[in-house]
Write a structure and sequence with these properties.
94 residues, mainly alpha, 5 helices, 56% helix, elongated
Length: 94
């Protein structure tokens, strides 16, 4: 996902500098299976980058309250997308 697209889709990170956003986008790209996510690969990358940014010191308002501090709405949406893309039936071979 290009930086400009990320900035449009996630305006809540406007205060975070381009270098950090690009670093998180690069990190998210290495952790996103483009073949598996198909047309949703950019969305999956952007959601993971947003999650990583939210988990940093500047993203406290994006984190969810509760016992599990490692969750954000971005991660939940990415997991939902992954289940939709990767959660289909599997064939077992003998």
């Amino acid at each position: 996902m290009p930086l400009a697209t990320f900035r449009v889709e996630y305006p809540e990170f406007v205060a975070i500098g381009d270098a950090l956003v690009e670093a998180k986008l690069a990190n998210a790209l290495t952790r996103t299976d483009a073949t598996g996510f198909g047309d949703d690969a950019d969305a999956a990358q952007g959601l993971l980058a947003a999650h990583l940014l939210a988990m940093g010191p500047g993203g406290a308002t994006a984190r969810q309250e509760g016992n599990d501090k490692a969750r954000t709405s971005y991660l939940e949406e990415r997991q939902r997308l992954a289940r939709a893309r990767f959660g289909g039936p599997r064939l077992a071979r003998p």
